[in-house]
User: What shape does this take?
Amino acid sequence: MSQEALTAFGRADALQSALGLTPAVGVKIAAIISFAGGIEYHLERALWRIRGIDPKGTKPDTDARMITDLITMLESAAAAQADGERQLLQLWCAAARSGFTIRHNIAHGVPMRIGGALAYMRNPRWEGEQRKREFGDFWAEDNTLDLVREAMATLLRIIATLSKDDDLSAVATQPALRALRAARSVLGEFASQTYNPSYEKY
Assistant: This one.
């Protein structure tokens, strides 16, 4: 099929405009999703280092695991660490759980425009059906996108460092801990249906 036929029928620009998926919004959405992919990759390798696993020639227990399982593994590894290092890993895990709730709401949610804003709705029950998973939403407003993007970047920078260096004490600096506290707060707010200020819009 030619590009002309695709463009004539698909009219992607018109769909993006109708949804409010502007170039500026699209770049930030793409960054959040891309950062999440990087976090998954580096988290597995960080687990190998922290747990003292040499994966060469083996199938490690981290293979093909869901992100929630990998985060749980890191939480377990955190329990054996000294105070500062344990705090670093626990903060990271708490923030990452919320961050991936947001990532899943975007990647698996139905996009729509509500009140001029692009919103993603995951597992809606508009036909009265029952769902295995809970409803989740994400409102792609400029300030929200900026906060979530910076929080996900913080998670990626820390886990990427840990995937190369298992000296946790060198990573658990005060600036890193402050950034993680902020990331946990931001991501927790926008992942939660209880505290998310956009929830009232739904």
The beta strands are 110-114, 117-122, 136-139.
